[in-house]
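Hey all, quick one. A colleague (J.T.) asked me to put the nicotinamide-adenine-dinucleotide job into the tracker so the inputs and the structure tokens live in one place instead of scattered across chat threads. No bug as far as I know, just bookkeeping. Sequence used:
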Amino acid sequence: MDRLNVAANDNLLGLHGEPPHERILMASDAASGLQAIIAIYSTTRGPAFGGCRNWHYATQHEALNDALRLSQGMAFKNALADLPFGGGKAVIIRNTKIHDRMELFNAFGRMVESLGGAYITAEDVGTTAADMRAVQAETSYVSGIPRGGDVYGGNPSPYTAYGVFMGLRESVHCVLGASTLENVTVAVQGLGSVGWELCKRLHAAGAKLVVADIDSARTAEAQQLFGAQIVDASEIVMAKADVFAPCALGGAITGSVASDCRFRVIAGGANNQLMSLAEGDVLHRRGIFYAPDFLVNAGGIISCAREYLGSAQEQAVLAEIAEIGQRVHQLIERVQTTGMAPARAAVAWAREKMIAG
Ligand code: NAD
């Protein structure tokens, strides 16, 4: 494999103002068309575990920045979930000319294998269980694959949605004082694998839904099945709702959203919802509770980790994911004690656990 041609800049090896990541592998494979980056933020708790995103990036720097941010988030997520893993993430720069997807993911599997177990991969946005099977043909450092028979494993998305639901419900309980989600209005941005499963659970719990997706077929289905109100994708961040659940891509909470949105609680599945911790401070000052993404969306990685470690049972995995609700409660106590905004308090908590190993 050849190295990617990424021009040097001050932040090439880490996020702005932070120590460099432990390891970054950038590779291309001419035969399959693969161009990918694996970023390992930390292995203090164990091998770096995090999914593989297959996405369109305008530049290689944009892809690198995404890998750096996502891998740091995975380190926080795995630490707060008490998993014996560090944080890493892979991004594949989507190439519309790829004709053999299997070959692409075989090549990515060889890239993962070349790290000798320092990084373990799984699905993320733009990748499927079938892709992970192609990865598995080249390496055993992969999860999120249906294993067959009674052996636990498979697509993490429903587990992610379950964890988000538990975290959202506890947030509503603590912040709004509501013992159930009956008649609580939740605005869901993005009705993909996670957002859709979340809507199913919210609807079953009696919540009222406001939804947006750039795919109008998805919103029409949500209107029909869940009685959801549809709003334009550009307007969901300002919708009138008690709760906002960002479940599309990152960066939903911009400065203006943090200053002007009308929600009481924000709890969703998307990674990197805040543009930066400063937006979390603005929300906190305005009395809006932000349940950090890396705390509430850990259900999928908990499922993948238990699959990877073996001998998992569905009920035990669900019970472990349900603990996300208790962790939200503990975070709120930390916020009350320290006065810190929830995002900062959660980062501090995760760092404590990363040092403890
Ligand atoms: P997905 O690709 O299945 O769904 C994303 C959905 O968002 C799609 O329906 C897409 O049309 C929609 N969308 C894109 N841009 C939008 C916009 N501007 N406005 C409204 N809708 C928009 O992805 P997913 O697996 O459901 O993941 C969603 C988010 O959750 C991602 O940020 C991902 O990193 C994060 N996440 C996913 C998992 C998992 O288990 N799948 C785990 C942890 C975190």
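Adding what we noticed when we looked at it: Confidence is low (pLDDT under 50) at residues 2-9. Residues 124-125, 156-157, 160, 189-195, 212-215, 218, 233, 247-250, 269-271, 297, 300 surround nicotinamide-adenine-dinucleotide (CB under 6 Å).
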